[in-house]
Amino acid sequence: MSYNLDINKNESNNKIINKVFKELLQELYVVFLDIEDHNTLRLNEFIHNTLLEYDLDPKNVFETMKINSQPDFSYSSLIGIFYQYGIGCEPDEIKAFEIFSNAVKNNKKEIIKKFSFDQKNEPITFCDDNIKELNEIITQYFYSLFLYKDIILNKAKNYKLYVKNAENGDSISQYYLGNYYYNKIDYNKAIEWYSKSSEGGNIRAIYKLGNCYYYGYGVMKDEKKALELYLKSAKGGLSYALRSVGDCYYYGRIMKDRSKAFKWYLKAAKKGDFQCQYLVAKWYHNDGIHDPKNEENWFYWNRKVAINGNIHAQFELAEYYLNSNSINKNEKKAFRWYMKLANDNEPRALYIVAKCYRDGVGTDKDLKEAIKWSVRYEESKVF
Fold first, then answer.
1. Which CATH superfamily does the domain covering 157-277 fall into?
2. Cα–Cα–Cα angle for 18, 19, 22, rounded to 5 degrees
3. Which domain of life does this protein belong to (predicted)?
């Protein structure tokens, strides 16, 4: 069933709409905490997958947000994002910028105190669940991205801009200078600048220094030292530092402890690390190999990572919706996920979509469509 997004229609619809938009805003917030990993394609796919999961039409959602962007239903950041990437509308960067700019100018809160692109010393504290506050933070991010896109997304290329500040003791500039030498495989220089930046408390530099010790880049390999540095960085909330601590406990020759590994993977998953979200989902689905099997927890994490774009998780979610005996069984949702995968030319999905049309599973019976998808499946086996 497709939800009717008339926000004034009834209380039930309001709850559904708020749930969807809050989920979008919360996940976008987590994504933007690590600006270095900003990925436009991932953002676009994430929004489309969320709408697919709820069976919502992008055009309908877009129009609903425009109509209902009021003080109590503030979605200006999402409206701007939809305009920028053409989700449910024609792409219009000028309109997107206008929305972000006006929203920021009208915002009287001191957002910038809550949001730092560089996370110098402290982790960003997650704000409450208030939709309006999430909206304000994300709007600030996109407004800044429009104004300073080249600087924000091309820091490594602009390393020369950081040399003077790095020499004058700025830990952020020292970190980016370290990155430049790291990417050039000049690990001695990289370690020099990462060390200086680490002394200033930069959690990213501490993490990179940990990598050097873990892999033996420019120094003698030392897993114990690497773990110490990863732990120090992880205390600052860096998601991939949390994951690396988990890796040390899972794979380490010195301090192997898979129970501790899971705890750190779970922390990273909660910070939005996609790899750890999938690891945690598998962990809960392993029939007690590492931890007691927990279907509810598996579903929560697998669904999340499926929406975030993991193909394996998408197949597992579709299969669960199709074959589960739980209250989550939903053949229509299963069909939608298989159709999404089939449109991405995944052979197994092509075969299942053909069967769904043939047997009327999750969709109406349609032999013409069944034949069409069967042909596409056979053609996929040729290549």
1. Tetratricopeptide repeat domain (1.25.40.10)
2. 75
3. Eukaryota
Tens-digit pLDDT profile for the chain (383 aa)? 444 444 444 555 556 667 788 888 877 777 666 555 445 557 788 899 999 999 889 998 888 888 766 544 467 888 888 998 899 999 998 898 888 888 777 764 444 444 444 444 443 333 444 667 777 777 777 776 666 555 555 555 566 777 888 888 989 889 989 999 999 999 999 999 999 999 999 999 999 999 999 999 999 999 999 999 999 999 988 888 999 999 999 998 777 898 899 999 999 999 888 899 999 999 998 755 566 778 999 999 999 999 989 999 999 999 999 999 889 999 999 999 999 999 999 999 999 999 999 999 999 999 999 999 999 999 988 65
Measured in whole angstroms, the distance separating CA 43 from the mean position of its chain's CA atoms is 8
Closest CA to 280 of 294, 265, 267: 265
Q: Is the Cα dihedral 73, 77, 81, 83 positive or negative?
A: positive
CA dihedral 167, 172, 176, 182 (to 10 degrees): 90
Domain segments of the chain as ranges: 2-114+126-155, 157-277, 309-381
> How many Å apart are CA 269 and CA 263, to the nearest integer?
10
55: alpha, beta or left? (left if phi > 0; alpha if psi -120 to 50): left
Q: At what angle do helices 274-284 and 295-307 cross, to 10 degrees?
A: 150
Cβ atoms 222, 244 nearer than 8 A = no
What is the residue type of 330? N
Contact status, residue 207 vs residue 123, Cβ threshold 8 Å: no
CATH of 309-381 given 3.30.980.10, 3.50.30.80, 3.30.70.3400, 1.25.40.10: 1.25.40.10
Q: Residue type for 9, please?
A: K
